[in-house]
Every structure is written in structure tokens, then in C-alpha cells.
Automatic annotation (TrEMBL):
UniProt keywords, alphabetically: Membrane, Transmembrane, Transmembrane helix
TM annotation in the entry: 166-186, 192-209, 216-236, 272-295
Protein name: Uncharacterized protein
Organism of provenance: Streptococcus panodentis
Length: 298
């Protein structure tokens, strides 16, 4: 049966038509249902989800409906969900009358025997509607539908989240901090250069961890927060040691030891402290901003 004919059939029955699913659906006497063509185009099945306070309706009770109805041929039951095969007809008007009679017979029968419309997943009565979940049509309460879709979203998120490789992440963060430290060593001659270098260390450390570990966690953020300032400070000291080495004719190792002793004794200039503090502060701030931005993706 063509979509136009199904739409006209739904209109004649006072029901709705879903063009995508090619079903006719609605509610009668508090029972949500849908009908769809099966096998031959003029053969329909009608679906309900019914139950009682004790649970799913007894199969014998549902089967007995086919004995009292002239248009319902046989039934199949799965939990609370039940489907009835409807008498077929190639005549459009007669088919509409048959479907109308099938809806009336079934809903009157359910109502007379104390059955109610229930969610096919939970078995709870209420405002049961027809929902599509993973391509399947289900009779659900709105709350049940929200739970299923939320579980599906969590499952999808879990599958899409890559496994974190901690050791590789540490190695990546170390390599990134080394590259950043090289920029400190080269650029930390002025306050502006120190700030630029501090940002580079923060970003390269974090990116190094993320690249090698495949994702960023609290562990990765902690590793980056430890490495970036430490490596920035080391490179800053080495840069000052290199300058002193050239001035005093000492080896880089001797000059490095001298710079550290001078700093501990308070014998360095205010510009030294200003450049170092600015670089460390900006490095930490840049790292926190980068962590916040990356963490939103996970």
C-alpha cells in the first residue's frame, strides 16, 4: 500500500500517520496502538501494550479476543506487547471498516476485562506513548523513554571515549615541556619574552600529554601542572646561567650553580625575580585555561 493510501486510511479512521515508519497510530479508550501493513499490502496487524496490576495479561485472555471478534484472526504476545493479525481486504473502504472494527473490538475487550495501557518495558500504567528507540517502536512512559535515551547517550559516550595511556602521556608531557623549555632558554631575556615562553611551555606540555595519552584526565592535568612550571623554572635558570657563563668565562654547570646560590642568597636583581615570577604565573594560568578548554571535550 502506498504512503498516500495509508495517509488517506489514517485520515478516514481519525488517526495519525507516520510517513517515515509507514504506520497508522492513535489512542482509543485510553489504549495507545498502531497498525501497519504486514506481508501483502492489504494485510494489517494492530499492536498494543496491555497489562494488569498482577503483570502481563494472560495469554489465554488475549487469545480469547480472536474468538469474539470477526476481524481479528490470531495473536502474538511478547511480555506486555500484543499484536493481532487483522482480516484483509483489497477493497479500500472495506479495509477501513475492518480496521475500525478491529480497534473497537480490541479496546472494548481490554476495557471490559480490567486491562490497562502499560509501558512495555516497566509494566507501569500511565500516559503511555509510542516512541522510537534504536529504530524500534516501543510503548513507553515519557520517563522510561528519557531513561532509555540517557542510557544510550552514556553508552555512546563510553564507546567513543578513547582509553588513556598514562605512561605514554607522561612521556609526551615531558617531551612537550622540553620543547617549551627550549623556548624559555632562547627567549627569556626580557619580561615579554618570558611571558611568551611561559605560555609555550604550558601549551606544549599539555598537548604532549594529550597527544600521547589519547585523552586528558585529572591525572594528565596534574602531571602537566607539575611539569610545566618545573621545566619553565629549570630553563629560566639555565638561560641566566648561560648569560653568566659568557660574562664570567665559567662552564654552564658552574654558572648554573652560581645562579642558584645567588638567588637563594638574595643577590640577584629585581628584574630577575620579576621575569621569573611573570613566566611561572603566566605558565600556570595558561595551563589551567588550556586544561579547562580540553576537558570540555571529554
Amino acid at each position: 500500500m502506498k504512503k498516500k493510501e495509508l495517509a488517506d486510511l489514517a485520515l478516514g479512521l481519525g488517526l495519525s500517520f507516520d510517513e517515515k515508519q509507514e504506520i497508522i497510530y492513535g489512542k482509543r479508550r485510553g489504549f495507545t496502538f498502531y497498525a501497519e501493513p504486514i506481508m501483502a499490502d492489504d494485510q494489517f496487524a494492530i499492536f498494543f501494550s496491555v497489562g494488569s496490576a498482577e503483570g502481563p495479561a494472560p495469554s489465554s485472555l488475549l487469545a480469547a479476543l480472536t474468538d469474539v471478534s470477526e476481524v481479528l484472526l490470531r495473536h502474538e504476545q511478547a511480555g506486555h506487547c500484543v499484536a493481532y493479525q487483522v482480516l484483509n481486504s483489497s477493497d479500500f473502504e472495506q479495509l477501513r471498516s475492518i480496521l475500525q472494527e478491529a480497534i473497537e473490538d480490541s479496546t472494548r475487550y481490554f476495557e471490559a476485562r480490567g486491562l490497562v495501557n502499560v509501558c512495555e518495558k516497566s509494566g507501569s500504567a500511565g500516559d503511555v506513548g509510542l516512541y522510537q528507540v534504536k529504530g524500534e517502536l516501543l510503548f513507553l512512559l515519557p520517563s522510561t523513554y528519557q531513561e532509555l535515551t540517557a542510557a544510550k547517550s552514556r553508552s555512546r559516550a563510553g564507546r567513543s571515549r578513547p582509553k588513556e595511556h598514562y605512561m605514554l602521556g607522561i612521556a609526551g608531557a615531558f617531551l612537550g615541556s622540553l620543547l617549551g623549555s627550549l623556548s624559555v632558554f632562547i627567549l627569556a631575556a626580557s619580561g615579554i619574552a618570558a611571558i611568551m615562553a611561559g605560555i609555550l611551555v604550558a601549551v606544549l606540555t599539555l598537548k604532549g600529554y594529550q597527544k600521547f595519552a589519547k585523552r586528558l584526565s585529572l591525572f594528565g592535568a596534574a602531571v602537566s601542572l607539575l611539569l610545566a612550571p618545573a621545566m619553565s623554572l629549570l630553563a629560566f635558570q639555565l638561560q641566566n646561567a648561560q648569560t653568566l657563563s659568557r660574562q664570567e668565562g665559567r662552564t654552564i654547570f658552574e654558572a648554573f650553580d652560581m645562579v642558584n646560590h645567588a638567588a637563594m642568597a638574595g643577590q640577584v636583581s629585581g628584574q630577575y625575580w620579576a621575569n621569573g615570577a611573570a613566566m611561572l604565573l603566566v605558565s600556570v594560568i595558561a595551563l589551567l585555561v588550556a586544561i579547562s578548554a580540553v576537558a570540555e571535550k571529554y
